[in-house]
TrEMBL record:
SCP domain segment(s): 15-128
Domain of life: Bacteria
Protein known as: Uncharacterized protein YkwD
Pfam (any one): CAP
Organism per entry: Saccharothrix longispora
Annotated TM spans: none
């Protein structure tokens, strides 16, 4: 998949997340390139390992990945496999209670979505984070 198309799908997921949050009176999330890089790296690694997981063998956990990209207040992560469109992956996450909880977490302020597409399918990661003082969470 060409870079502009991949970025457009990732950005569309961010928009769909913000629609869901707005409908519920929650603040929209700001896109963060550090979180996108972390999410993209993880999506690529899941595809390489052919494993859908938050932590792959020998690899850092979600918080360590976000910190490694320079994002100092990591918050949560959603992963998915197989959904070919931004709408389908956003709907899948909203149908799952733990994933929906991340999308609608009132303390999260930042988001980065990463997509990797190969012959096996579409590998998705959403990384979420905080701004500001941890006491306010």
């Amino acid at each position: 998949m060409r870079e502009p198309a991949r970025k457009a799908l990732e950005d569309r997921v961010v928009s769909l997340v913000n629609v869901e949050r707005s409908r519920r009176g929650l603040a929209v999330l700001g896109a963060d390139e550090r979180l996108r890089r972390s999410a993209r790296r993880h999506s690529t690694d899941m595809a390489r390992c052919r494993t859908l997981a938050h932590r792959l063998p020998g690899e850092p956990d979600p918080f360590e990945r976000m910190l490694a990209e320079g994002f100092e207040e990591p918050g949560g992560e959603n992963v998915a496999f197989g959904q070919e469109t931004a709408v389908r992956v956003a709907e899948a996450w909203m149908r799952s209670a733990p994933h929906r909880a991340n999308v609608l977490h009132p303390g999260f302020t930042r988001i980065g979505v990463g997509l990797w597409v190969d012959a096996t399918g579409h590998w998705w990661t959403q990384n979420f984070g905080y701004d500001g003082d941890p006491v306010d969470r």
